[in-house]
């Protein structure tokens, strides 16, 4: 089967949003250019972050349309006006939500390019009946209103924060999508299971737990788990600690409680992982 390819540009509509792919339109388009494109929201402005790049249609996963044009001076003026109006829309939404007693954290607002629609992003700990709010906003701005509730991880991504490491959180610095983070990752990496130490500003497990997890899984493959009992030099021994970096295991000989530090590989490793180095 022939895998047809297309020369495309990757465009983000908002900072670190999922990348959308578009074909060129004959203009000299470069990374960093602001372009006008059609999205499921309507006519919108995006920033070119990839390309030109050759991808198969299977890799893209949808029918590719073309970039309409690079923003000219008039477009740029309108784009800046839209951003100013969006800030006002956010302020008005905050005021009206407070007047209606709605438990909402208004995070951001933006206009599509032709100002026919306003998207307002908010966070909340409960479901919110915002029908009256939508009516009030539609009357105020004479546009269609979409109120979009986002999860707590996306909320931190949008407003930004400082992580426990002292750097800007990964989600607001470079992550475009969230991976599934599980407690097993912290256990695999031999971290102390202290929720405060392994949770991000969003209160969920830190995204960075996924970065080194594959390394630990590979290094600890076929190595006995801490707390397990194995046979060492024909006598039973309990595994006290495992150090993946130093490639050593601390054992405690059960019959005399004698601690023994063993470098990998040793007999248990060779027996249970014959292909291991």
TrEMBL record:
Name residues in a coiled coil: none
Q: Which residues form the PSP1 C-terminal domain?
A: 65-150
Q: Name one Pfam family in it.
A: PSP1
- Tell me the superkingdom of the source: Bacteria
Q: Which PANTHER family match?
A: PROTEIN PSP1 (PTHR43830)
Protein name listed in UniProt: PSP1 C-terminal domain-containing protein
Q: What is the lineage of its organism?
A: Bacteria, Thermotogati, Thermotogota, Thermotogae, Petrotogales
